[in-house]
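Researcher: Please translate sequence to structure tokens.
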Amino acid sequence: MIIKIRKRLCCAAIGCTAFILAPVRVHAEVLDYAGAEAFYQEAGDAPEYYEIGNGTGEAVRVLDYEDVLYVTTREAEIRMVPETSGKLLRTVLLGTKLTQTSICSNGFSKVVYQDEKGEAVIGYIETEMLSDRSLMTKMDDKVVVDHDTDILDYPGKKDGEIIGEALEYDEYARTATVNGVWSRIVYEDENGTEQTGYLPTSALKGQDEEITVVSMADEKGKDGNAGTLSESEGEGVFAEAVERVKEVSDEEATVAAVGVRIGEPVSVSSEATLKSLGYFRITHYCPCSLCCGPWADGITSTGTTAVTNHTIAVDPAQIPYGSQVVINGQVYVAEDCGGAIKKDCIDVYVASHAEGEAKGVYYTEVYLIQ
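Model: Translation complete:
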């Protein structure tokens, strides 16, 4: 049966408040226009180019490149021309399989989508919304909730918006699992309309709890051993401190996820000029699939690699990217964001899910270094 959800207002990464729907951008290993050109060059082949209009009077250069890709955002729009203002042909959901046929110089890809009736929809979609890995396994079973938990619109606590609450013993139809960590279920909203949402698989009866990290290095077969800590490539005033890899014991190292970059804490200087930003809700997140979603790769929304004791996720409308802020005497840099990270909330990047849970949620005064 389908259970109607009970709405509530708060939750987060390892605990923040979600307010509005925000697109989730991921960093999948999908070639962009320049990458496709380089691929052809390395292969010694000459790509076939052509130009098309983007609907605004500008010409876009296109080259042929075929691949099978999957949607990584909550939903993505297929448009008639490679431009966000182009006519909308179809909206496709997370995990949808698409055939890429060419890549545009303005960040779009031409794709073919087979709809439920087997009819082909041909159009353009933003390349950054795609991945070459699905991570989604189709399911067709009934699941029972083991304990009260939130229903999210995206499988990741940092970016997923809370759209309801599932209570213990509620039963849902499950349509897929995402990396085994999340289960996609069907529920009814307050208007009785069927919707799709996501629950942690660990919140379901008979499911083993599993917190994992999915990194591009692991999936592509590159080197990586559990507990390996990589040196930071941070930039800016505190780069020197961040680049020093923190010394940890073998036991501590195994707690950190593969490839997590460990930064050394930087205390605020007694000579620093500080401006109070007020009291904030402080939460914690790590690069695991439960926190950051199935395509987690440790890359922040600003393109930097997240570093512990350094990176925080903020609402950039309140704290601009690059800002140096002080939390309990320690300096952090605003480098990331998330759909669940809104006004008066800061998410601190940590090395493991267990560490984030141990540090919990608290409120404290936050300062800006001027």
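Researcher: Any highlights?
Model: The chain has three domains: 33-131, 136-203, 239-369.
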